[in-house]
Amino acid sequence: QVQLVESGGGVVQAGGSLRLSCQASGRSFNVRAMGWFRQAPGKEREFVAAISWGGGNRSFLESVKGRFTISRDNAKNLVYLQMNNLKPEDTAVYYCAADQDIGVQRRADEYEYWGQGTQVTVSS
Predict the structure, then answer these.
(1) pLDDT digits (tens, 9 = 90+) for 58-74
(2) Which has the closest alpha carbon to 58: 34, 82, 74, 78?
(3) Residue 22: its pLDDT value, please?
(4) Order of strands across the sheet with 78-83?
(5) What pLDDT sits at residue 4?
(6) Contact (CB, 8 A) for 102 and 54
(7) CA–CA separation, 95 vs 45, rounded Å?
(8) CA contacts within 13 A on the Cβ side of 107
(9) Greater confidence, 28 or 17?
């Protein structure tokens, strides 16, 4: 019913920027709350950012506050993660997630739908 496809990953020098995009398809009522998670080699998947259906509520991992911004365009079924001042510690596969609830969700097990991920590599 729902398909999520991430794009925009790549290799960037420390201090650089990338913008990730997540294109959603399917029933709109299944794509309300959305979030970004990441997983580095040998580590567990961790929460990065989330946004409510209306876009009025957002939440971020403490280590990315002030550097990352999450936004969405509901008319186009798109969610973005703007990443500025990237650090080597940000290197990971980034995943987009969606859920039918309308509020901000920070837990991976609260999301129903997931994309395949996009690689972000930040070099020193």
Answers:
(1) 999 999 999 999 999 99
(2) 34
(3) 97
(4) 3-7, 18-25, 78-83, 68-73
(5) 96
(6) yes
(7) 9
(8) 3
(9) 17
Strands 68-73 and 113-114 come out as unpaired
**29: confidence class by pLDDT, cuts 50, 70, 90:** confident
Instruction: Please report the pLDDT score of residue 28 as a whole number.
Output: 78
DSSP 63: G
How far apart are alpha carbons 63 and 70 in whole angstroms?
A: 14
Q: Do strands 118-123 and 10-13 pair parallel, antiparallel, or not at all (unpaired)?
A: parallel
Q: What is the DSSP string of 48-117?
A: EEEE-TTS--EEE-GGGTTTEEEEEEGGGTEEEEEE-S--GGG-EEEEEEEESS-S----GGG-SEE---
Give pLDDT, residue 100. Answer: 93
Residue 86 neighbours by CB under 8 Å, 6+ apart: 12, 14, 15, 16, 17, 18, 67, 120, 122
